[in-house]
Every structure is written in structure tokens, then in C-alpha cells.
Amino acid sequence: MILEPRPKKRIFIGLLVLTCLILFFFIFLLWYVPLVGLKNIHPLLPLLFTTALAILVFFMLSGGLLLILTILWRRDLLFSHKLRGIVTKILFPFMILMGKLVRVSKEKVQQSFIELNNHLVRSNHHRTKPNRLLILLPHCIQDFDCQIKITGNVKNCKGCGKCEIKDLIQLADQYQVKIAVATGGTLARRIIVENKPEAIVAVACELDLTSGIQDSYPIPVIGILNERPSGPCINTKVDIQKVKEALLDFLESKSSHYPLL
Ligand code: SF4
């Protein structure tokens, strides 16, 4: 499976807008229905209740607007770090549910989430030293027939060139960043705990990337989807240029060159 060149953030944003509209409808019901009853308890209660709901709506609208403006203007406006946390920890599970409701596949929502996360990380202009930057790769990128064990130490690779591990090690050496291969989420978490990176460039499929981004928060992760020309989990590929761009996003100051939405 070869992925589309750039999964769209607009799927996530569209689902977010839809969720907000539904929530606003329920908030309206929540405001309107008990209003009469509250008046009977105390004449001031409807005013207090309305104020509380108005504050809630204000925060929801401001948060949504801030998220959209951060994406459109590609820079850290206000609280982009916090926005990333809200998107990662709270909104994403809702968007998966909402996607089911309007028949957008889980995979598409995951791709959109990864793209949105990358955009927010880039907007945050997080810079780090090379030795605190980690390239984290999935095991399936190694040639299936290669007998060399690279999970403990990726530098065991003999550099035969049958898979992209060779190029990725060269890239890591060029920028003097750390590089590791994980066979799954548990090992990935252990690698992160041991290496204590300040930033991560991760390559994986939709499922592993989304769970990795969630588990690693607040460490900023730029996720790069692998390509699966031989099917999932075997002889997968990655665009080396995308990995290089992600490294440079963490290592040097440069303006973003990614398209809107
Ligand atoms: S490049 Fe390295 S990991 Fe890939 S097949 Fe050759 S020796 Fe094995």
C-alpha cells in the first residue's frame, strides 16, 4: 500500500466542527430545558446557569478558533503546546467516534490526526540539540530476510543496502542524532525512557504512530507514515527526504513549507 502524498488535516478539522455543532445543540437543550425549573428554586439560578454555559461555549469557541488560526498561520499563536495536548488526549478519541458516525474510516482520521499533530509541533518551533533528538523506526522496515539483529543496536546493520536502515543510519550519523528500532509499543516506550529524548521523529503505520504520539506526550513527535508496497508489517519503506525534513524542523530554525489544510 502506497499512501497518498499528504493526508489532509481538514478531515480532523471537519469532524471537530461537526462535533462542536452537535455539542452546541446539546448545550442549548441543557440551557433551555431546566431554565423554568431553576427559576422556581431561586430567581438568580437561571442567570448563574446561563453564565456558566456561556463561559463553557466561549472556551470551546476560542479553543477551536485558536486551533484553526494556528494551522492557517503556521505559527505558535497562544498555547499551541496546550492545544496539542488537548487534541492528542481529548479530541482524538472523540474524532474517531465521530468519524464512525459519518463513515470516515479510522485510518483516514488517524492520518489526519498525525498530520495535524505534526503541524502543531512545527508551529511550536521546538528546537533541540542533536543528542536529544531520536529517530524511532519500526522493525518492519528491516529487510524480512536479513538475519542481523538490529533491535538492540541498530548499528549492527552491515549496510548492504537491501533496506532503508542503511540510509537512515547514514542520516542519523550526518546529523549526529540517536536512532533506534522498536518491535512494538512496549519496546518503543522503553527506548524513550532510556534515551530521554527532547524530541522524536517517528516512522510507523497509522495505529502505532497515533498511539506513540499519545503515549509520548508532552514530548513533541513528528510522525511519518511508512509505505507498505508488500503489505502491512513486511519490508515497509519510508521517504528519507521526509525524515530529513523532520530532523531539520527540530534542529534548525526555518519557515514551514507545508501547504495549508
Ligand atoms: S541494510 Fe542493514 S538491516 Fe537492511 S538488510 Fe542490509 S544489513 Fe540488514
Distance between the termini: 23 Å
Instruction: Note the beta-strand portion.
Output: 5-15%
The helix tally amounts to 9
Bound molecules: iron/sulfur cluster
The description of the largest β-sheet is:
4 strands, parallel
Characterise this structure.
This protein has 261 residues and is α/β, with parallel strands linked by helices. 55% of the residues lie in helices and 8% in strands. It is built from nine helices and four strands. It has helices at residues 10-32, 35-41, 45-73, 80-101, 106-123, 165-175, 185-195, 206-216, 240-251; strands at 133-138, 178-182, 199-204, 221-225. A four-stranded parallel β-sheet has the order 2-1-3-4, sandwiched between helices. The radius of gyration is 22 Å and the shape is elongated. The protein binds iron/sulfur cluster. The site of iron/sulfur cluster has 14 residues, from α6.
Short structural summary:
The protein has 261 residues and is of the alpha/beta class. It contains nine helices and four strands; from the N terminus they run H-H-H-H-H-E-H-E-H-E-H-E-H. Helix 8 links the parallel strand 3 (199-204) and strand 4 (221-225).
Relevant terms:
261 residues; alpha/beta; 4-stranded parallel β-sheet; 9 helices; 4 strands; elongated; disordered N terminus; disordered C terminus; binds iron/sulfur cluster
List the SSEs and their pairings.
Blueprint lengths: L9 H23 L2 H7 L3 H29 L6 H22 L4 H18 L9 E6 L26 H11 L2 E5 L2 H11 L3 E6 L1 H11 L4 E5 L14 H12 L10
Parallel strand pairs: 1-2, 1-3, 3-4
This protein binds iron/sulfur cluster.
The site of iron/sulfur cluster has 14 residues, from α6.
